[in-house]
Design a protein that fits this description.
6-stranded parallel sheet; alpha/beta; 9-stranded mixed sheet; binds adenosine-5'-diphosphate; Rossmann fold; about 475 residues
């Protein structure tokens, strides 16, 4: 079974959120399951800088003159040997800033072209007969950035391989001016309600949902939620229409997130050697985040993109109530300017008790998840969420809103659930500061009960969140689509 995995992020070369983690871990798990997988990514500077030995497979100018010069490079992902196919097109990707935004946080104006080209390369490699000696049995597209691949395949003359699209977040849709339809080589007669059109714009994600053979998303609960007007982001009708082809497969987490051998941590620990390791990580974290050194005060951690989705405003509004009791808060995040400045204000309002780092810092994210007592994820919606699973693995029970993958992965700590060794964290229902504060309150009460707390931590640490199960589900889909074993 050969799969081309098309993605705009792959950890550790480029990551803005969970997609980067998934695009690293899932292909590795697929390889373990016997799949010959190649990951197709754009050649951003951070990717090109860490490619190591790369071979040029072919030039890509023939695909269209507007993005020349361009080449397809073959390399391997460091430390894993995972085959990478990199689209080296300096005019589109060789620039400062992030994969989607300028250094000052605006979307790149030519994103339609940048990711349209990625899609063209993905579709070209999925043509039959194949242009190169290696050709996929299935093309697996991720998020809007790869959403045009199924549409480009469907609109070409001749046979092509089946496609899967995975929705990692329905809120990001890649909607652009309709003039891009023809510029990107798509027929204008596909620009209609049942095709590429979404409220008068060309929608990459809608194109993917419409034309892919299968649609997956990253948790069973989110697969149901996106079929409702509340969380369907305007695409719920189409998703209901395609519900027979839509499935939720829960993400896993990989072994690079393991407190027993995590190079970012000052002290290793596991579920049998827990107390001393957690204590040491907490002390170092308190120092690093400018918090008072106190082993006993409950320390709440948060690592997140700072957006409305993540419910950061709920936390900010709950802060006066929360800070009325002895606790500390360590925040790591970057995102919307308003939230960054409100968090800065919170840090100065509670010196030594609220530590805020406004940055994207992978090693610090590990230390916060390891050194905190509780981990906060008050998301308004959450397709899967990885950080709550990392937190459980690191003995840091999460407090989460009951939505999407958070609801699918965290078992609320009722007395019965704790006794039956099922409880792993605390959930709350409504996206309000009061409900969040009440859940933290419950968590603090349990924290005061040493035996109960240890049980809660250990139950979370022992949960199986491995990628093996998810990879098997994806392989099942690939087999059904391609008839290949
Ligand atoms: P999303 O994909 O919506 O951002 P997830 O929980 O699925 O949310 O994945 C987020 C990933 O990004 C996690 O690995 C988390 O630790 C990481 N992350 C988020 N913000 C930061 C940050 N500021 N610094 C380092 N890692 C971060």
């Amino acid at each position: 079974m050969k799969v081309l995995f098309v993605t705009s992020e792959i950890h550790p070369l480029v990551k803005t959120g969970g997609l980067g983690d998934v695009s690293h871990a899932l292909p590795l798990a697929l390889r373990q399951a016997g799949v010959d997988v190649r990951v197709l990514v754009p050649g951003y500077p951070s990717v090109m800088a860490r490619l190591g030995k790369a071979t040029a497979l072919c030039t890509l100018e023939a695909l269209s003159p507007i993005w020349s010069p361009a080449r397809l490079l073959e390399a391997q992902l460091e430390d894993t040997g995972l085959p990478l196919w990199v689209v080296d097109c300096p005019s589109l990707y060789d620039r400062p800033g992030g994969p989607y935004q300028t250094p000052d946080g605006r979307d790149w104006e030519d994103n339609a072209l940048r990711f349209g080209f990625l899609c063209h390369v993905g579709a070209w490699l999925s043509n039959t007969p194949a242009p190169l000696s290696w050709s996929p049995d299935v093309v697996h597209c991720n998020d809007w950035q790869a959403g045009l691949v199924p549409a480009l395949l469907r609109h070409r003359q001749g046979p092509f391989v089946p496609s899967v699209i995975t929705i990692h977040n329905l809120a990001f849709q890649g909607n652009f001016d309709p003039l891009w339809v023809t510029r990107l080589g798509l027929p204008m007669d596909s620009f209609h309600l049942q095709g590429l059109e979404f409220y008068g714009r060309l929608s990459f994600l809608k194109a993917g949902i419409n034309y892919a053979d299968r649609i997956t998303t990253v948790s069973p609960r989110y697969a149901r939620e996106i079929q409702t007007p509340e969380l369907g982001c305007g695409l719920d009708g189409l998703l209901r229409h395609r519900s027979a082809d839509l499935v939720g497969i829960l993400n896993g987490i990989d072994d690079s997130w393991n407190p027993a051998h995590d190079p970012a941590l000052p002290a290793a620990f596991d579920d049998r050697r827990l107390a001393a390791g957690k204590r040491r990580n907490k002390a170092v974290l308190q120092g690093e985040c400018g918090l008072a050194k106190d082993p006993d005060v409950p320390l709440l951690g948060l690592v997140s993109r700072l957006t409305y989705q993540k419910g950061i405003d709920l936390l900010l509004e709950a802060l006066p109530v929360l800070m009325a009791q002895p606790l500390q808060l360590a925040v790591l995040g970057s995102g919307e300017a308003v939230m960054e400045s409100r968090l800065r204000e919170a840090a100065s309002a509670y010196p030594g008790r609220v530590g805020v780092t406004l940055d994207f810092d992978e090693p610090l994210s590990h230390r916060i998840i390891a050194g905190s007592d509780l981990f906060l994820m008050p998301s308004r919606f959450e397709p899967c969420g990885l950080a709550q699973m990392y937190a459980m693995r690191y003995g840091t029970p999460p407090v989460v809103r009951e939505t999407g993958g958070l609801a699918d992965t965290v078992v609320d700590c009722t007395d019965d659930a704790l006794r039956e060794r099922k409880a792993t964290g605390f959930t709350f229902h409504n996206a309000t500061p009061d409900d969040l504060a009440a859940a933290v309150q419950r968590a603090l009460a349990t924290y005061g009960n040493r035996t109960g707390w240890r049980l809660l931590q250990k139950t979370g640490m022992r949960r199986d969140f491995s990628w093996k199960r998810a990879a098997a589900d994806y392989v099942g889909i690939y087999r059904a689509l391609s008839g290949t074993t």
